[in-house]
Design a protein that fits this description.
Layout: E1 2-7, E2 10-14, H1 26-45, E3 50-54, E4 58-63, H2 68-87, E5 92-96
Parallel strand pairs: 1-5
Antiparallel strand pairs: 1-2, 2-4, 3-4
Helix pairs in contact: 1-2
Length: 98
């Protein structure tokens, strides 16, 4: 299962969706596409707005400049991930600390 932990200005991704074999998993592909597209969009607008790193477990995103554009793109990313969670709740779980 992919686990997404959201704290103020910090997002962590870990795990594998286990929907299908590696390379054929549509849930993993969707999460990767959503996250990479969001990161690229944010960095295109402001290359200092976020930092991200790949880890052995997954990925960590830290929001460094909480401006309107970064917030909108981050909220859009989270909204898309939540839509995936509704349909594939056995494969992706989002934990949000408010």
């Amino acid at each position: 299962m992919i686990k997404v932990y959201i704290k103020h200005n910090h997002i962590e991704f870990s795990g594998h969706a286990m929907f299908a074999d590696y390379g054929k998993d549509i849930v993993c592909a969707a999460v990767s596409s959503i996250v990479i597209t969001s990161i690229n969009g944010i960095l295109r607008l402001n290359d200092k707005a976020i930092s991200y790193k790949l880890t052995d477990e997954g990925m960590i995103i830290d929001i460094l400049d909480d401006n309107l554009e970064t917030r909108v793109l981050t909220e859009n990313m989270i909204s898309l991930l939540k839509e995936l969670e509704k349909k594939y709740g056995k494969n992706i779980k989002i934990y949000e600390e408010v």
